[in-house]
Design brief:
The protein folds into two domains: about 110 residues, Aminopeptidase, CATH 3.40.630; about 150 residues, 3-Layer(aba) Sandwich (Cytidine Deaminase, domain 2), CATH 3.40.140. Helices cover about 35% and strands about 25% of the residues. It has eight helices and eleven strands. A hairpin with a 2-residue loop joins strand 1 and strand 2. It comes from Luteimonas chenhongjianii. Homodimer. Keywords: Hydrolase, Metal-binding, tRNA processing, Zinc.
Length: about 300
Amino acid sequence: MHPLAIADARAFWDGALQAAARGERIILCARRGDEVLGTGSLALVSAPSQPHRAELTKVMTTASARGSGVGAALVRALEQAARDHGRHLITLDASLVGGATRFYRRLGYRPAGDIPEFAYKPLGGLAATRVLWKLLDAREIARPPIDTSMDEAHMRQALALAERAMLDDDEIPVGALVLDPTGKVIGTGWNRNIAEHDPSAHAEIVAMRHAGAALGNHRLLGCTLYVTLEPCAMCAMAMVHARVARVVFGAFDPKTGAAGSVFDMLEDPRHNHRIAVTGGVCADVAGPMLTNYFRRKRGLPPR
């Protein structure tokens, strides 16, 4: 990791192994024969006021092992080690570069906040990091099981709305729809910023306005919102205020996404309402639709 030298990395791991020998740290290694596929570390030493806490560090997998479940298996094994040592709260920090935070979110970790210029990026320069946590003793917020069987079908409806935004109005192709607790569509929308000279007329806002009118209520209790692009901060907070139960989105937005990519407003434990989130549904369609819209605007061929 630039600008750290190999000697510095070896010194770190020598110190980590010595700490493991003293019982202050647990280090696990995933192997396939003689090939190392990944590593993970759990620091057990903490302040006297934190005897219940452990810190997860250095969970890394080789490029050939990514996507194979090795990283998730390492984390679960370290969680069990934490339980075995009487720890029930795990904290960690994860880089906002790449998909690390999404990886931990899938494993049940919750964000506490972001710290700018926290650590070196792999190729040099300082990067922000996200602090996450997880309780291991079933005291996390309980939620009823979520039925995802219709997610793709509803996202296809949202994609059709996004296409209308692009073809009918020459707006950025984002579409959204709101379902009531019974699964009935009660609000639809697509981007209307340009047509209505309204900076707030994002697809999600338009769909929620229609849904509120249909229900005769500013609260969308028990409702699910589908949108083809990860919500921005404005739309995410509108969803929190509306008490939407669940949000399903298509393409991730690494620049302004507020459902885990840049900010994490929908599941932030500091809010008095948190929203269940599922991301990446039909992202293989939603992402290229947006990319090619902007490429056409620049006179470039589609990808």
